Amino acid sequence: MEQWYPVAWAKDVIDLKPLSITLWDRHCVLFRDRSTGIYVVMDDICPHRAAPLSEGRLYERETDGEKETVLECGYHGWRFNCDGRCVDIPVVPLEKRIPAAADVGVVYATHLSINGLIFMWFGDRLKADESKIPLPKELVQADESERLFYRDSFRYFPISFSTLHENVADPTHVSWAHHGTGRDNRKTVKRSGGVDIVHENLTEGYVHARKYNQDSSKGWSDIFFQTPTAVHYAIKLGDTKSKIFLLSWTVPISWDKSKVFTLFSYLNPPKIVRLVKWFSPRWYEHTITNLVLDGDPGMLQKQYAHLQAVERDGYGSAWKKEYTLASGKWDTSVMKVRQFFDMHGWSMPYATPIPSDARSERILTRVVNDRYENHTRECQACTAALHNFTRGRTAALVGAGVSGAAALFSGIVFAALSIGGAAFAPLPLRLAGFGGTVLCILLLRLAKMLHYFMTLMTYTDIAYDLNHAD
Ligand code: FES
Ligand SMILES: [Fe+2]
User: Fold this and answer.
1) What is the pLDDT of residues 262-317, one digit of tens each?
2) Sequence-distant (≥ 6) Cβ neighbours of residue 104 within 8 angstroms
3) In this protein, which residues make up the domain named Rieske (predicted)?
4) Whose CA is nearest to atom 1 of ligand 1?
5) Does the beta carbon of 73 lie inside 6 Å of ligand 1?
6) Which of 448, 112, 460, 446 is nearest to 286 (CA)?
């Protein structure tokens, strides 16, 4: 449990705005120290009367010529520096010494990693060991010119940490759950397929497995599980120098809520991939990631609810009673994840006792796949895109109304002139009628397209439709 956990992408942390994050039910506040550029994570509880500091304000102040970022509690204005030290209590005379009890409880170690992924060390900051950050060394050590990062995203799931881990580490579900939205296809899966274990050390929480492609001469996928969050796929593409990394980190938020961070990376990418990346805004990449991820939560939540209904026993044995694992190597990685939790789950939060309100009811897929709640609300790129699409749609509808009215008005005038015996309508009238009609149709089409984009940020059924199309 005392490990590194990813908590946010730097691009989702707004300057001088505290962000609330949760890990293992521990509420923390995250912000960037403007003076040093370091990301700060501390307990989200004000020592005064326990208000959340993430609802407060951040500002820069200057003392003795030095600038420092200060977090001010929104309730009574106590102020804290980036070390969690209380530096000012507004109602107390300045000369009075502020006791250590007024400092924030815990300040955590953080690390800004590849592509701006912020990790925090959940534990004693003096023991934070950066060599333990779960990242592929090959990618971290590669030269900037050799690697390309794309689709840096995240998503919340209303299920436990262990259930989600089991899903992410299982490559064999992709052909079915993501059929139509991913690369694999349920119609071409080999019966002899599966996963081989290359190396494992479950005591240390490390497994290296390998899955061969349909045609094994065309490369393979290496799967690395590194305790307690990381599942990394490294895909070798035939004889080329290129390699794709599909990185994910599964993070426990609370008993029945988890968050997955995803990052795709290319080592030695073809030029066309760089070009596509250059043209792809972040919100667009997120719509693709969400399209793929829409295939899982509806099923996973119901699977999780069933295990909870059978036996509320933490990471324990419900799965042993309820699962009939496939023979051969199909479910190898599922076994490894479950063995890991059998071995280490007792030392993690939520092992026992189980919270009495642990969920065992099914949640509608419509609710589980609410993209606004599970992604957009915390994503700066998608929030901005949704805002712009909403405004654009309103403008397009207003424009369509005005141009439609102009066309209608010119039509009425034209009809009146015809009744009055005029042979031809004046040119401006004809132009207004024709132009207004065309513009109205175009703007209505634009409004429809923007509405479609808005559904990609909120809720859409297209993953289900693609998956069930053939
Ligand atoms: S609760 Fe934070 S200043 Fe009072
Ligand atoms: Fe997004």
Assistant:
1) 999 999 888 898 999 999 999 999 999 999 999 899 999 999 888 888 776 666 67
2) 42, 43, 45, 46, 47, 53, 80, 84, 85, 86
3) 4-109
4) 49
5) yes
6) 460
In the chain, the N- to C-terminal Cα span, in Å, equals 43
Of 331, 120, 116, the C-alpha closest to 211 is: 331
Evaluate the CA torsion angle 166, 170, 176, 177 in order and state its sign: positive
Probe ligand 1: pick from 55, 71, 78, max atoms within 8 Å of CB? 78
| Mean pLDDT of the region 338-352 | 80
Query: Which of 41, 43, 39 lies closest to 10 in space, CA to CA?
Result: 39
Q: CA-CA distance, 293 to 174, in Å (whole number)? A: 10
Contacts (Cβ under 8 Å, ≥6 apart) of 9: 115, 116, 117, 118, 152, 154, 261
Residue owning the nearest CA to atom 4 of ligand 1: 76
| Distance (Å, whole) CA 44 – CA 21 | 9
The number of angstroms, rounded, from the C-alpha of 258 to the middle of its chain's C-alpha atoms is 10
User: Which amino acid makes up residue 317?
Assistant: S
pLDDT number for residue 352: 63
Q: Is 344 left (phi over 0), alpha (psi -120 to 50) or beta?
A: alpha
% the chain with pLDDT above 90: 55
Q: What stretches of 51-131 adopt beta strand conformation (E)?
A: 57-63, 66-72, 79-80, 86-88, 107-112, 117-121
Q: What is the residue with the minimal CA distance to atom 3 of ligand 1?
A: 76
Return the sign of the alpha-carbon dihedral for residues 376, 378, 384, 388: positive
Helix (H, G, I), strand (E, B) or coil at 258: strand
Tens-digit pLDDT profile for residues 214-233: 665 566 788 888 878 999 99
- Residue 178 CA, distance from chain mean position: 17
Rounded to the nearest 10 degrees, the angle between the axes of helix 282-293 and helix 380-419 is 100
> 53-67, 84-98, 173-187, 446-460: lowest mean pLDDT where?
173-187
Question: Looking at residue 432, what is its pLDDT?
Answer: 85
Decide if the complex's ipTM is over 0.85: yes
Q: Residue with structure tokens 């102040």?
A: 61
Please report, for residues 84, 120, 171, 296, 372, the alpha-carbon distance to residue 156 in angstroms, rounded to integers and kept in the order given: 29, 18, 20, 12, 10
Give the count of beta carbons closer than 10 Å to the beta carbon of residue 281.
11
Question: Rounded distance, CA 275 to CA 356, Å?
Answer: 52
